[in-house]
Amino acid sequence: MASNDSERRPLIGLPTYSERARFGRWDVDAAVLARTYIDLTERADGIPVLLPPTGTPRPELVERLDGLVLTGGADLDPARYGAPAHPETGRPRTDRDESEFGLFTLARAAGVPVLAICRGLQLVNVALGGTLHQHLPDVLGHLEHNRVPGTFNITTVATVPGSQVAAIVGPEVKAHCHHHQAIDTLADDLTATAHAPDGTIEAAETREGPFLLGVQWHPEENTTDTRLMRALVEQATQYGRERNR
Hints:
Strand order of the largest sheet: 4-1-5-6-13-12-11-8-9
Oligomer: single chain
Largest sheet: 9 strands, mixed
Number of strands: 13
Number of domains: 1
Distance between the termini: 20 Å
């Protein structure tokens, strides 16, 4: 028997990385994404849909999505915010930048709910006119946000009372952090709604319009907490129902 609309699980788009990968006997260019994003989406009752970087996205792709997660990963090309590259800034992934800036623009225009994670928050800020610190240790004088390569540091993040992120996770959250870049100039359309003890912006959101919440930490790394993804899935479910009326 076909499910009615109220039972339909929303389709959540997850952009992938484009990286060299080894599996089995193969060493090839591949579209890959950490399994933790997929598992978190499933635990939150969404249906994960992987979106490889294939150039400028078409509107008909976004029309099929109920929600979008802008995933973490490589540094943005600093040319996107009019800055020369810092020596510690990674090699630009221009294919991924082109694809995800396009996805975000189309999603906002269509009213698709968006959860932005780490690089995703940085992308949202730049897309809306903000800038980034390219290497936080130069600004803060410490490595707390990216202490050991390939691992996540637990940081206690304080949220702003009355914000969406505070309503979702409470006044503070133990956040899994791994980033050497962060928001510098905040885009006019965003409000900073969570901070690390050193003042680094750890979450930002919009006050009006479609759901748009970005966090600098990695909620997909906490296997016991689905609150942020569930918030997106709830928004995506509502969006899908309204769109399909």
